[in-house]
Amino acid sequence: MKISIYVKFVIIYLLGAIACFTFVAEGTSKMILNHMTTQKADALYREASLLSTNYAEDYYRSRTASSLETVHSHLSALDAYLDAEIWMMDIDGRVILESDKKLSGKNDPIYVVSSFDPTSFGTSYYMTGNFFGEFDEEMLSVISPINYNLRVRGYLVLHSSMEELIASKEAILNIVYLTLGILLLISFIALLIIGYIIYSPMKKITKAAAEYAAGNLDYQVDLDTEDEFGRLADSMNLMAKELNEMEAYERKFIANISHDFRSPLTSIKGYVEAMMDGTIPIEFQEKYFNIVLFETDRLKKLTEELLVLNSFGSKRGMLEITTF
Q1: pTM higher than 0.90, yes or no?
Q2: Angle between helices 162-194 and 29-51 (to 10 degrees)
Q3: Between 219 and which of 43, 184, 211, 301 could a Cys-Cys bridge form, CB atoms 3.0 to 4.6 Å apart?
Q4: Which residues lie closer than 8 Å to 133 by C-beta, 6 or more apart?
Q5: The most confident of 179-188, 195-204, 224-233, by mean pLDDT
Q6: Tens of pLDDT along 247-298?
């Protein structure tokens, strides 16, 4: 099945549009979410570092219920401000306090995160997920060590729901989709304009070439522009005109050559037949043999001239092709 260049352009455009939307849906979506997550994690880590230095260390200085109550009151006050749930844990994964829950009045861990492993953070200070199976939704968890006497005594962990970040990401992504859709619409309009400017003249020139190939040298390309297509159309019209004139010249030339060959051949035939049937007596035959020889030489010269003309025409054609 033959497919036009314009249809190929449209197919390529549609494939490009699909690729753009796919990239935005997959790649851009992930990049936006990663960027927003990193920004939120940086902000939470700065707060976590301040909290661990200003409040959490106080607990490890005295390890009393009153000190734990003081730390809890500070963290609870900052819970809503940071929009994050704040945990204080020891190095073994035991949760000492949670900002959104009341203290039991005892200086004992609330519960233990059995699979807690601080090395799973690697070189990063945050992670996304359910924090070792402790949450039912995806969370952003930022960890900051609590140092006392040059030793890590525990960790302050801030948990923030990823739901808000994902919602913000979707809002930004909708703007990106809208912008991309407008750009694709503009480019499609540009494609239609290009199709009218380029494909329409190309179609006319292709039709003219098909007409010339079919032998219709009277066909003229109706293209009145000053660009490359217009110059090409003028060249094709001139070529068709010259080919048409050359064809007429060849017909005239063949007619003249036929006449030039017919006259001596008719004479030779007539004289030979007259000598054979005795119309010309034997004593006059030498004269007519000389006439036959003269006409034969004449035919020979005509043949040689045709060969020279044919050779000159071939060389001229090759020269024109080489020059072109």
Answers
A1: no
A2: 150
A3: 211
A4: 115
A5: 179-188
A6: 676 777 777 777 777 777 777 778 787 778 777 777 777 787 788 888 788 7
Q: Are 74 and 99 in contact (CB under 8 A)?
A: no
How many other CB atoms sit within 10 Å of the CB of residue 189?
10
Q: How far is it, in rounded angstroms, from Cα 211 to Cα 203?
A: 12
Chain position carrying tokens 């970040």: 165
More confident residue, 46 or 194: 46
**29-51 and 65-82 are packed helices; what angle lies between their axes, rounded to 10 degrees?**
150
Please tell me the distance from the alpha carbon of residue 78 to that of residue 66, in angstroms, as a whole number: 19
Cα–Cα dist 198/9, whole Å: 12
Per-position b or e across 276-285, b if 16+ CB within 10 A of its CB: eeeebeeeee
Alpha-carbon dihedral 248, 252, 257, 260, rounded to 10 degrees? 180
Residue 91 and residue 196: Cα distance in Å, rounded? 72
**How far apart are the C-alpha atoms of 143 and 51, rounded to whole Å?**
11
Rounded to an integer, what distance in angstroms lies between the CA atom of residue 235 and that of residue 212?
13
Q: Which residue has the tokens 């048409």?
A: 244
CA distance 124 to 121: 6
- For residue 140, give the 3-state DSSP assignment: strand
Please name which of 70, 71, 109 lies closest in space to residue 92, comparing C-alpha atoms.
Answer: 109
Strands across the sheet containing 126-129: 111-112, 94-98, 85-90, 151-161, 139-148, 126-129
What is the amino acid identity at position 37? T
Other Cβ atoms closer than 10 A to 155? 22
How far apart CA 50 and CA 99 sit, in angstroms, is 16
d(CA 93, CA 110): 11
In DSSP terms, 140 is beta-bridged to: 128, 160
